[in-house]
Design a protein that fits this description.
Elements: E1 22-26, E2 35-39, H1 52-55, H2 63-75
Antiparallel strand pairs: 1-2
């Protein structure tokens, strides 16, 4: 809460709000990440309402692009990477 990533949900959601159910998964044997959050993207606000999985476009399969990336890495000596830590925390679905 201190970083502004999460906020406390109101007791009664508004008309166009839906809170994605989630649960913790604990791995006692892990050396680094002992706790992670698993979201239920197939949850529905009502039986006739769409889930977030129904509303999102999965995009094209990227397995074929992976081969191109691996071949490029062999040709060019420098690779750039980026940190996308907050990319998935800023999701808005227009209904």
């Amino acid at each position: 809460m201190a970083t502004g990533v999460i906020e406390k949900a109101p007791a009664v959601p508004g008309k166009r709000e839906f809170y994605l159910p989630h649960k913790p998964v604990v791995r006692e044997t892990a050396s680094t990440t002992k706790l992670r959050i698993v979201y239920d993207g197939s949850a529905r606000a009502a039986p006739e309402a769409p889930s977030i999985n129904d509303c999102l476009n999965p995009g094209p399969p990227l397995q074929s692009a992976l081969w191109d990336i691996l071949v490029r890495e062999r040709i060019f000596p420098i690779a750039l990477t980026g940190d996308i830590q907050k990319a998935f925390l800023q999701i808005r679905v227009k209904m």
